Amino acid sequence: MIPFFDRIDRADRVLVVGCGGGFDVYSGVPLAVRLIARGKFAALANYSFTSLDPLTEERLSEVLWRVDTRHGSLPYFPERWLCEWLAARDLAVPVYAFIQPGVLPLANAFRQIVAEHAIDLVVLVDGGTDSRIFGDEPGLGTVTEDAITLVAADIAAPGRVLLAALGFGIDDFHGVSHHSFLENVATLGREGAYLGAFSLTPGTPEADAMLDLIDVANARQGALASIVTNSVASAVRGEFGNFHATDRTGRSTTFINPLMSLYWTFEASRVMAHMAFGAALRKTSTRHQARLAIEEVRDDLTLRPRQPSRSDSRPVITAGGNTSIIGPKGREVDVPVAGQPAPANGFRHNPVGRQVVYQGTPAALIRADILGAIFDVGVAVHDLGGRRFVSYFD
Predict the structure, then answer these.
(1) Is 107 within a domain?
(2) Chain segment 126-149, per-residue pLDDT in tens
């Protein structure tokens, strides 16, 4: 029932990568635990925010380090705490860190790991949902690292990359629209790129492993405890609403809920195909270049509203049939009379109101019904000074 599991169960050697930076690799640990329990090989890697330059023992390339418990203890070192947790449980899992590269060097680092361990599947795991950004959303969250990782993995292992996201709703703090995310999931679902959703369920070995790892990291990390992983852990443990597992969220309002414990999974290449700035990112060597490329592409995009306007207003037709009410936001569609050229793309954006204008015959009634069905909105026809107006409202 969940195509994602069909894909990973067919693989023998899997690289699980935290794609958004920071503690995102922790969201991949339950998947690694499941793979190991089934006799598979698993390696872990993370787009790291830790400065590893002083730790030269295991530097494998310009941007790639292998991390283990021999590395010194730094104030912020999620990968080190992960290695300690793995070692305490006798789990021989190699752990790698990518030190904030752009796409080209990161793709080379991916190739190096894939070759060394004969990897046949790469699973990118995002703590949050901003890795499913297409580019025209009202807010991008912290998309740069996610997008770099997604594009680099696709270059290095084309056709062998899956994407999973854990923590629906957490990125609201960074301006990510839940409506846009769900709309993107629907788009990917129509194309067969959505591989299903499943829950990190309390009492299972996978969930218990992640909760234990987060507790260990919290004890080591102190004041810099991860907001994302602690929000997920709170949801798995059954907390709800404005609950704060860390003081870092104390001045904000949270909404911990069961949806945060869901993994949403996708075919990575199909996600990237929708990413408006994907092609521009392929040329970048640094994170700064990637950020500028995203901003440049986004400047030319028409952004979606954060949430479609929902109006309870409905046209009120007076005895004379002359009343027209216009909704607060939306599109205006001009449908010309027969024999006249149609407007470009059939509609034009209008930030003021939603109105379909038809000049001509009573055939406007048929056209109104068609438009109402297409846009799933209420439709009414008005007669203003001998001209027919078709208004629709969401």
Answers:
(1) yes
(2) 998 888 889 898 888 889 999 999
What distance lies between CA 275 and its chain's CA centroid?
A: 11
Range of the domain at 337: 330-393
Instruction: Quote the tokens at residue 213.
Output: 């790892």
Same domain, 51 and 199: yes
Phi-psi region of 36 (alpha: psi -120 to 50; beta: other; left: phi over 0): alpha
**What is the maximum alpha-carbon separation in the chain?**
85
Alpha carbons within 13 angstroms on the beta-carbon side of residue 329 total: 8
Torsion from C-alpha of 25, 28, 29, 30, nearest 10 degrees: 160
Same domain, 388 and 249: no
Q: Of all helices (H) and strands (E), which one includes residue 368?
A: helix 364-375
Contact call for residues 262 and 166 (beta carbons, < 8 A): yes
Tell me the one-letter amino acid at 203: G
Instruction: Give SS3 for 187.
Output: helix
53-85 tens-digit pLDDT = 766 668 999 999 999 888 677 788 999 999 999
**Per-residue pLDDT tens over the stretch 15-68:** 999 998 899 999 999 999 999 999 999 999 999 998 887 666 689 999 999 998
- Provide the 3-class DSSP secondary structure of residue 371: helix
- DSSP H helices, the chain, are 3-10, 29-37, 78-88, 103-117, 143-156, 178-190, 205-221, 227-236, 268-274, 278-281, 287-299, 364-375
Please give the sequence-ordered ranges of beta strands (E in DSSP) within the chain, or none if there are none.
13-18, 41-48, 64-67, 95-99, 121-127, 161-166, 194-199, 262-267, 330-335, 348-350, 355-358, 378-384, 387-393
Joined tokens for residue 127: 């703590």
Query: Does residue 313 lie within any of the structural domains?
Result: no
